[in-house]
Amino acid sequence: MLDLILMIIGGAIIGWVGMKLARGNVRIPTWLTVACGISGVLIGNFLYTLLFKDNTPGFDWWRHAWQVVVAAVLVTAAANYRSKGRVRV
């Protein structure tokens, strides 16, 4: 249960940072930002462990950088998907 709570909190933080790094004016709901952050954490961890060895001692900054980049890509994709069919002014 604690892992789920930490994943939601971490996903919210990483999603927010990803939203700030995303290109353009990103306007998506908070729940979608958190979902993109959680997905960014999961996919970023998977890609990092797939490409690099998972033996870094201490706090792994590169792993979190991968998570934020993946979250930024997902936030941008979600914003573009939500804006399809709408008139931009």
TrEMBL record:
Subcellular location field: Cell membrane
Domain of life of the organism encoding this protein: Bacteria
Keyword check for Nucleotide-binding: no
InterPro entries associated with the record: Transgly_assoc
Main location (coarse class): membrane
Membrane topology, from the record: Multi-pass membrane protein
GO cellular component, one term: plasma membrane
Transmembrane segments: 6-23, 30-52, 64-81
Keywords of the record: Cell membrane, Membrane, Transmembrane, Transmembrane helix
Similarity comment text for this entry: Belongs to the UPF0410 family.
The name this protein goes by in its record: Transglycosylase associated protein
